[in-house]
């Protein structure tokens, strides 16, 4: 029987996940609030101190920092000397670790109480995540509840391969790196006016582009605080890397004029047309006059609503991208 260690702050679907693991012949070890939730749901679980042979202490600050936990996670299954030492020390293998971390971001968003903030810095969680990720050759590491079904499916269908665990390992180190970066940035903001010796920028991938700035390169779009996902919707097509850089320039210019009917055309990183007029149709016509040759295959940013009339005019020539405040249904039909 394999063993799984479940210790999560985000308890979404953890009961169902634990039940499914038991159905796949896993024994569950759990901690604190997670253990309590499982027991209340009549899920068979072993409390962490039965494994550590040591009680949780210091108001929960120390519970999993123990050789029976980290030894169970970290010992190599492919080295007989490790297996012999594990047997000698009474360390049993832990084959799956499911951990997500204390909600530091949610805490700093709701309070300025430094003591509460400090207590929401996770120590044991990142240590377990890093241990399990390091030993991904033998251990499944899970940090995201949205991956539960993926992992259950892999176990059930014999797809728990080294490559599968390696992908989860990378995601785990991204998770702990982003977590520590958030803490460091917060502390520097609070005590060093945001000007610490290091500043961390952590983005989430939105998509890969077909290629990078040049055909032999790769490209991708990353966002911060879900800025792209929350604010933009792709209606048709797929933006390339160069499209995205042109979009950025065109939107910054067109949107810089408040509620004015502004249109900016960008080609290869440079504005080749811009106008403000009483109507967006007039603004487009005037922007196009600036350099109609370069505008071919360009990016057009519209500071307002694209109507059917404007869409028909735009459709007279090839444009790579049209980005606007909104595009009405009749205009969409034109495109």
Descriptive terms for the model:
335 residues; alpha/beta; Rossmann fold; Cytidine Deaminase, domain 2; 2 domains; five-stranded parallel β-sheet; four-stranded mixed β-sheet; 16 helices; 11 strands; 18% strand; elongated
Can I get a quick summary?
The chain has 335 residues and is an alpha/beta fold.
Task: Describe this structure as you would to a colleague.
There is one protein chain. By secondary structure, this protein is an alpha/beta fold. The chain folds into 2 domains: 2-191, 3-Layer(aba) Sandwich (Rossmann fold); 236-334, Cytidine Deaminase, domain 2, CATH 3.40.140. 45% of the residues lie in helices and 18% in strands. It has helices at residues 14-23, 32-40, 48-52, 67-74, 80-89, 104-110, 114-119, 124-134, 148-156, 162-191, 227-231, 241-254, 280-290, 292-295, 308-314, 329-334, and strands at residues 2-8, 26-30, 46-47, 96-100, 140-142, 204-208, 220-223, 262-267, 270-276, 299-306, 321-327. The strands form 3 sheets. A 5-stranded parallel sheet has the order 3-2-1-4-5, sandwiched between helices. β8 (262-267) and β9 form a beta hairpin. α4 (67-74) packs parallel to α8 and α8 (124-134) packs antiparallel against α10. 28% of the residues are buried.
